[in-house]
Amino acid sequence: MPMINGNLVPEVSALLPPQSLMTSTYSALKKSIREALIEDWSRLFLPPAYYHHPPALHSRPFMGLGKFMAG
User: d(Cα 25, Cα 23) in Å, to the nearest integer?
Assistant: First the structure.
């Protein structure tokens, strides 16, 4: 899905970079930010030694269990 549709605003479309460049730049930036977040999270908030799951931006399958609902 394009972030900005240059066809809707023709006078601005000449000033915008190509859609493929905008999409790839956004995806690369998003990936970089997520990796930095996980790295900082791992470094600043060390999990207990007994917890074997690395930090992630999505919930784990077992988080739906009743005792984990508050988390």
Answer: 5
d(CA 18, CA 26): 13
Query: How far apart, in Å, are the Cα atoms of 53 and each of 17, 33, 37?
Result: 41, 21, 16
Please state the pTM of the whole predicted model: 0.54
Residue 40: closest CA among 27, 55, 28, 30: 55
- Report percent pLDDT > 90 for the chain: 14
What is the DSSP code (8-state) at residue 37?
H
The span from the CA of 29 to the CA of 54, in Å, is 22
Cβ–Cβ under 8 Å, residues 41 and 55 = yes
